[in-house]
Amino acid sequence: MAGRIHRRVGSLLERRGLGSQADPEEADTLLHDQPLPAELYSASVAGRVATGPRAGRRLAKVGDEVDAEDLAALSGRRCAVVAGFSVHADVSIPARDRMRLERLARYAGRPPLATERLSLLPDGRLRYRLKRRWHDGASRLIFEPLDLVAKLAALVPPPRFNLVRYHGVLAPSAGWRPLVVPSDPEGDNPHPHPECPAGKQAANIKLQQYGKGRGRNYSWAQLMRRVFAIDVLQCPACHGRMRIVAAIQAPEVIRKILQCLGLPARPPPLARALPDQEIEELYH
């Protein structure tokens, strides 16, 4: 599969005039329209520094070197790399295991940086500890502050860019999409006979209205439990279940209740912004 993807992408680039024989400066329209993002993207893909005096050099890595012969042992049984195109199919989830599916979705949607693994070195550089050792043996990366900002800027999508794309039967124009995507049971065709004019009309109306279904709405308590692992409806005294009696939104009523409970009724004052000199003193 990795080899097939490599060949098809190469053929597609050749048909669009972006193959190996094309001039990179003429083929890359982003380089002319927006040169700074193009430079950041190119350096990020190549694993090099984009800006500053070390521009063009590779990232500073800390860790033990790994021989090229050991790289094959680090790959999974269902993983392959062909000319930079990789396929990872070493994770399988049973059809009804919703918990593992949610964990996989959370992993795919994780943020690009874990702040608890980022630390400041005495010389002012930033050290990022990797969760798992890379194939080349690197376990930590060393960044200049500006280099790290450039790497994060390359992850910001351009305006009006689709972040989610569907392929195969889930593609917008796929003919089998209505057969695999759940639909509203109220809109089912009451005339299942394929030659029935009423059935055809109902099917056409259903296809025109496809995609307008309502998504799942989580309650405030469910969101708090899913995001912060806090069960706000559990009584701290008896650990029983509580229910919401009323939602108070009037500011004056909320203020009186907080004062009666002995809690602060005003938000804390905003702290002034620190000048750059005072910020530097905090890190030294």
How are the SSEs ordered, and which strands pair?
Elements lengths: L1 H14 L8 H4 L1 H5 L1 H12 L13 E4 L7 H4 L4 E4 L2 E4 L9 H11 L9 E3 L5 E4 L8 E6 L1 H9 L23 H4 L16 H12 L11 H9 L22 H10 L15 H7 L2
Q: Can you walk through the features of this model?
A:
This protein has 284 residues and is of the alpha+beta class. The protein has helices at 2-15, 24-27, 29-33, 35-46, 71-74, 98-108, 145-153, 177-180, 197-208, 220-228, 251-260, 276-282, and strands at 60-63, 79-82, 85-88, 118-120, 126-129, 138-143. The strands form two sheets. The chain has a four-stranded antiparallel β-sheet. Strands 2-3 form a two-stranded antiparallel sheet. Strand 5 (126-129) and strand 6 form a beta hairpin. The two termini are 52 Å apart.
How would you summarize this macromolecular structure in one to three sentences?
The protein is of the alpha+beta class. It has twelve helices and six strands.
Can you tag this structure with a few keywords?
two-stranded antiparallel ribbon, 9% strand, 36% helix, extended, 284 residues
